[in-house]
Each structure stands twice: as structure tokens, then as C-alpha cells.
Design goal:
With 304 residues, the chain is α+β, with helices and mostly antiparallel strands. It has 2 domains: 2-91; 109-303, Immunoglobulin-like (Sandwich). Helix content is 32%, strand content 17%. The protein is built from 4 helices and 10 strands; from the N terminus they run αββαββααββββββ. A 4-stranded antiparallel beta sheet has the order 3-5-8-7. A 4-stranded mixed beta sheet has the order 4-10-9-6, covered by helices on one side. A hairpin with a 4-residue loop joins strand 1 (49-50) and strand 2. The termini are far apart. Its main location: membrane.
Length: 304
């Protein structure tokens, strides 16, 4: 009995000692954590600015000055090299003519009204007013009063002026389009169901088409479709070539060909597919990879 009583009397003391030891361990851990935090703060402060060595972010003021001076000189040298090479390259370029233009050997054709499908009711002007407006807008620069300021050029001959600083512009008067000029018939034939289509060739600098280029249009159907051309035979006179670029030749006007489709009553309410090509020259017009190279196709449908 006495021995068991002694064990029971000693247990609370041992438990107290263990608790004290655990508290001491916890205290030591907390102290170490605080010391580590202090060391971290000190090391971070020293990293930004070390008062003992006078270093900022690991470098002295002299070291920072040297490295900044190095990069300043280095990038100034690179910028100078870039400017020099650009200047040398620009000295080899002509400001009026692209260095490489072999990818655009032949021009394409475009039409006005600028749409691939022309459909309207000739009895309702609101159906075709949009087409008339497009034609009027294009022909503003071709008004006779405007074109009289330009030069009379030699028909059938190239207007070559390579050495001229200011390039002259050949006249193309609107009145040469006659029934399709919009002067005598402001509806351009749409009111009669005989619409006029204006065709022009894209500008290509330095292009001098060989032969005698003209526009030829055909209808893709069995029966023949009567077509009238203005100027006569749809000629694109060589006097309008070559073109010297937008900067050297700012007032240049492209020659136009007006095509009037003389539809009869039998042709009304039918869709007609018309293909126009540049013929009579060395210009390409049959490249299957480019449907607009030297040709253009459009559809016309007139309702009564």
C-alpha cells in the first residue's frame, strides 16, 4: 500500500516537469522563428541598401554608373547602325517606282457599277438609281471641262516621259463615250433596258502593252447578244501608257471603255453572263488561277 501511494504522489510532479520542458521547447522554437524573421529582414534590407558597404542592390554607385554607361553606348551604337543601314537602303530606291513589280505583270479589269450581278426593273428608277450614281461618280473626273486642262497626245503612240519631272496627262473626255457618257441620256440606258457598263484597266507602273489593245465582250449563251462599244471597237489607246505612279503622275486618268448591252424584249427576264477580255495585245487574259487578270465576268438581268 505504501509503495503505490508514493507512485501516486510522484506522478503530478513528473507531469509538471514534462509540461515545463515542453513549454521551454515551444519558447525556443518561437525565439528561433523570430530570429529568422529578423535575419530575413536584415538580409532584405542589406540587399536593397547595405549601409556598411554603401551598395544598392548589390552594386556601388560607381559600378552602377559604369554599367549604365556601357548599355547607353551599346544601344546608341545599335541605333546608329540601324539608321545607317536604312539610309543606305533608301538611297537605292526610287520614290516613284517600286523596286520589284514582276508579280503584277498584267493588269486586271474592273467594271462600274461595281458589282458582279446587275439586276433591275427598267420601269422602276429606284431599282437602278444606285447603278447610275456609281457611273456618275466615276465620270466626274472625265468631264470635258476638267479634261481640257490636260494635254492632247499623239493617238496610237506611247506617251513616254521618263526624263520629265512633271508628267503630263492625256485627255480622255467623257463625251467620247457618247450614248454611255450620261450627258444625253442621264439613265445610261437603264431606263430602256439597255444598260451601259464602264470597264477600266488597273494601273500598273511602267506598263506598255504591245499591239493594239481593245476590250471584247461575249455572252455565255447560245444566242448572240448585241453589244456596242464606246470609243469605237473598245480601243484602249496606247497614248495613255505608260503610267508613272501616283506621286509622279497624280492627275493621271485611266482610259475607259463603255459597253452597252442592246437587250431586246426577248432578252428581258433572263440572266445573261457576260465576259469581257483585253484582246489584241500581249496582256494575259486566260489565267485560270486569277479570274480577273485581263478579264472580268458579270451577270445582267433586266425585268420589264
Amino acid at each position: 500500500m505504501s509503495s503505490s501511494t508514493e507512485v501516486q504522489n510522484q506522478d503530478p510532479k513528473e507531469e509538471t516537469n514534462q509540461a515545463v520542458k515542453e513549454e521551454e521547447k515551444v519558447g525556443e522554437k518561437e525565439k528561433k522563428k523570430e530570429e529568422k524573421k529578423e535575419e530575413t529582414k536584415e538580409s532584405w534590407k542589406d540587399c536593397m541598401y547595405n549601409p556598411r558597404t554603401g551598395e544598392f542592390m548589390g552594386r556601388t554607385a560607381r559600378s552602377w554608373g559604369q554599367i549604365l554607361l556601357f548599355y547607353l553606348v551599346f544601344y546608341a551604337f545599335l541605333a546608329g547602325m540601324f539608321c545607317l543601314t536604312m539610309w543606305v537602303m533608301l538611297q537605292t530606291l526610287d520614290e516613284n517606282i517600286p523596286r520589284y513589280q514582276d508579280r503584277v505583270a498584267s493588269p486586271g479589269l474592273v467594271i462600274r457599277p461595281h458589282t458582279a450581278e446587275i439586276s433591275f426593273n427598267r420601269s422602276e428608277p429606284t431599282n437602278y438609281n444606285q447603278y447610275i450614281q456609281q457611273l456618275q461618280d466615276l465620270l466626274q473626273n472625265y468631264n470635258d471641262s476638267v479634261q481640257e486642262r490636260n494635254d492632247l497626245c499623239l493617238v496610237g503612240e506611247y506617251t513616254e516621259q521618263d526624263d520629265e519631272p512633271i508628267k503630263k496627262v492625256c485627255q480622255f473626255k467623257r463625251s467620247t463615250l457618247r450614248q454611255c457618257s450620261g450627258l444625253s441620256d442621264t439613265s445610261f440606258g437603264f431606263a430602256e433596258g439597255k444598260p451601259c457598263i464602264l470597264i477600266k484597266m488597273n494601273r500598273v507602273i511602267g506598263l506598255k502593252p504591245q499591239g493594239d489593245p481593245y476590250i471584247n465582250c461575249t455572252a455565255k449563251r447560245d444566242s448572240l447578244l448585241q453589244i456596242k462599244y464606246f470609243p469605237s471597237e473598245g480601243r484602249l489607246d496606247k497614248m495613255f501608257f505608260p503610267y508613272y505612279g501616283k506621286k509622279a503622275h497624280p492627275e493621271y486618268v485611266q482610259p475607259l471603255v463603255a459597253v452597252q448591252l442592246l437587250l431586246s424584249e426577248e432578252d428581258f427576264s433572263m440572266e445573261h453572263t457576260v465576259e469581257c477580255k483585253v484582246e489584241g495585245s500581249d496582256l494575259l487574259n486566260n489565267d485560270e488561277r486569277d479570274k480577273f487578270l485581263g478579264r472580268v465576268t458579270f451577270r445582267v438581268k433586266v425585268l420589264q
